[in-house]
């Protein structure tokens, strides 16, 4: 039997200076930054909105803004600015971002996912970015086996060929890197952090909840012990005992980060595999319902609460990453290593999600640098990465993947793409000093 791949719909071809694949925090920042430098920018996004893990995954917080410290009375000390600060300020003005709230030894801010989407739309339209929602890159255009020249995208209209001088892989999963056959890494020898189904719980008596459980969004050991007890008794199925509950910008609402999703057979799930990704969605919604039942039965203020929504998709912490020219090592994070080629900084802890309790390792009163070469492929030209698919070791990415840093990466990589085009350089040959100069002009506060 002779069976051929067939699609009667014709190709459309468009061209641009910079193509950004993925509209999460990093992709948004890359696209807006490059467009503000006068570049013709196209952004591909598979959903009908931007936000990536922050919105589609409902992670719901802007983590990574502040130093960690045991001197909590000093208040939050912000270390990430530039595009990150611009976005947060705009979101706050729209009533879509909370004040800083305690998260263990640091602080975070909770955002409204609808207002996040609208803020992103505003910035993209204002900058003149061509946004193509409901589209997925399904192949890479390669010249001479070396230079990335854009992608072939799937759309409802039909295949779309997008020619670009510089392509930025902000897919979160290094999809373009993989399609181009460039070196990549997957977790710790293929083992990645657990996905999580995050959900909103409404109808919470917040005064009673906060009086009982305090202002720290990481629930205390008494709650963890009760989860362990009830899980062992068989009354509930609660595989994760250390949980995080965040009051949101909406009255009587908690953002619940508490599930630990495995396969029905107990295996660890990796969303790069379609069976795992699909099973994670089903098991995640089931598990969210079980945690909500436990909250109603046992947490003060939650007696009459209900799930108003689960995330559009499970939250993904780690999948495939670039194996780049440089690599952020675990030791760089724990030692607070500084780097003269830095284009971003982070003070977020190593936060590994596996087993019944996430492991958190804090870096106190310090930060580490993330250098530009963590976003440059070892081979080929015309391609950069941005976001959590940076080149980093397993534990390092458990710190470097959060929202404030992804904004910062995108801000820097958008400038790098524009500089490369202006000077007819391969992106890998752009000077980090020149990127840093541009970032400082945008208020990034890099030393």
UniProtKB/TrEMBL annotation:
Molecular-function annotations in GO: 4 iron, 4 sulfur cluster binding; metal ion binding; oxidoreductase activity
Keywords noted in UniProt: 4Fe-4S, Iron, Iron-sulfur, Metal-binding, Oxidoreductase
Any Pfam family hit: FAD_oxidored
SUPFAM superfamilies noted in UniProt: FAD/NAD(P)-binding domain (SSF51905)
Protein name: FAD-dependent oxidoreductase
């Amino acid at each position: 039997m002779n069976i051929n791949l067939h699609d009667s719909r014709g190709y459309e071809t468009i061209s641009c200076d910079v193509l950004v694949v993925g509209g999460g925090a990093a992709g948004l920042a890359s696209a807006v930054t490059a467009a503000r430098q006068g570049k013709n920018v196209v952004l591909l996004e598979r959903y009908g909105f931007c936000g990536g893990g922050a919105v589609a995954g409902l992670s719901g917080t802007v983590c990574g803004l502040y130093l960690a410290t045991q001197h909590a009375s000093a208040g939050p000390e912000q270390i990430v600015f530039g595009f990150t600060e611009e976005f947060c300020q705009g979101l706050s003005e729209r009533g879509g971002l909370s004040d800083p709230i305690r998260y263990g030894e640091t602080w975070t801010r909770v955002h409204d996912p609808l207002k996040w989407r609208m803020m992103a739309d505003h910035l993209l339209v204002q900058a003149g970015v061509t946004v193509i929602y409901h589209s997925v890159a399904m192949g890479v255009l390669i010249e001479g086996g070396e230079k990335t020249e854009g992608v072939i995208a799937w759309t409802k209209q039909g295949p779309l060929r997008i020619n670009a001088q510089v392509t930025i892989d902000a897919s979160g999963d290094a999809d373009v890197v993989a399609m181009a056959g460039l070196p990549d890494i997957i977790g710790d020898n293929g083992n990645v952090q657990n996905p999580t189904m995050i959900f909103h719980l409404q109808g919470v008596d917040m005064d009673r909840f906060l009086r009982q459980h305090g202002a720290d969004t990481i629930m205390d050991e008494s709650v963890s012990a009760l989860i362990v007890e009830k899980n062992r008794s068989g009354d509930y199925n609660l595989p994760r005992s250390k949980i995080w509950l965040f009051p949101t910008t909406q009255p009587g609402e908690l953002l619940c980060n508490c599930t630990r999703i495995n396969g029905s057979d107990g295996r660890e799930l990796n969303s790069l595999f379609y069976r795992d990704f699909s099973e994670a969605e089903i098991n995640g919604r089931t598990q969210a319902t079980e945690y909500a039942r436990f909250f109603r039965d046992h947490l003060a203020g939650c007696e009459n609460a209900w799930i108003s929504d689960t995330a559009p998709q499970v939250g993904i912490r780690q999948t495939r990453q670039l194996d780049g020219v440089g690599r952020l090592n675990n030791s760089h994070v724990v030692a607070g290593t500084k780097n003269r080629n830095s284009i971003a900084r982070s003070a977020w802890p190593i936060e590994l999600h596996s087993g019944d309790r996430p492991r958190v390792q804090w870096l106190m009163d310090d930060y580490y640098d993330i250098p530009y070469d963590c976003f440059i492929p070892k081979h080929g030209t015309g391609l950069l990465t941005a976001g959590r698919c940076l080149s980093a070791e397993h534990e390092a990415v458990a710190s470097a993947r959060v929202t404030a840093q992804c904004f910062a990466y995108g801000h820097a990589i958008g400038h790098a793409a524009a500089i490369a085009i202006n000077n007819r350089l391969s992106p890998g040959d752009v000077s980090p000093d020149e990127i840093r100069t541009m970032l400082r002009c945008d208020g990034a506060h890099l030393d």
